Amino acid sequence: MVIENASSTTPTTLFTRVKTIASSLKIKHVIVDFAINIKKIAEVDSRRITHSLKVALAIIVVSMIYFVQPFYNGMGESGLWAILTVVLVSEFTVGATLSKGLNRGFATLLAGALGVGAESFASVFGPTLKPIILGFLLFLIVALATFLRFAPSIKRRYDYGVLIFILTFALVSVSGYRVDKILKLAQQRFTTIVLAGAMCVIISICVYPVWAGEELHKLIVNNLEKLASFLEGSF
After folding, report:
1. 185, pLDDT greater than 90
2. How far is CA 154 from CA 103, 148, 161, 162, 190, in A?
3. Which helix (H) or strand (E) is 158 found in, with range?
4. CA 88 to CA 86: how far, in whole Å?
5. Which of 23, 122, 145, 208 matches a 20 to 30 Å C-alpha distance to 183?
6. All residues at 6 or more sequence positions from 168 whose CB lies less than 8 Å from its CB, including other chains
7. φ/ψ bin of 208: left (φ > 0), alpha (ψ from -120 to 50), beta (otherwise)
């Protein structure tokens, strides 16, 4: 019986080892392929590496709101909005970063003002009806803003701003129901967003800037070179 058990476990153990080795080789192959793909992406345009480092630098700078105690005392938990702004606003070109920053700034300002107004208006009806009125205003404005995103002119130029408006208005309105000093909350959030957006634009302009016009010029040159190569091969 002992011999039979030994003989039956040996193939199983061998199979397990082979499977483990095969799995490790497969994982190694995946890692190598991933590294090769990353290298190809960097070789196509080395500025992508610079852009990644610029975004990381902006994140570190705005994180000082949390790391440095005086800044944290002034901004509080609203410092998280600065980090969120950097992630959402940072783009490859200076123009795209500036456009997104302005869209976010104006949308936040408008949504914050409407959120404070909605909370103040709902407070007039007393604590019993306040959540009902606030919920109705939230439903109405969010539905209207979402519908406006389907308009071609808004979809083409201001879709990101409308999206930020919906997000900010909903967060300010809902959080304002449980916060006494809603004006201070809205002021802190708007300030952190403006600071983070300005930091993104400054870093994008001052640290190896990438301009959209330059990108268009390079694209046209590459297309003309491809066309010339095709015509030379044809004739």
Report:
1. no
2. 12, 7, 9, 8, 23
3. none
4. 6
5. 145
6. 107, 108, 111, 112, 115, 189
7. left
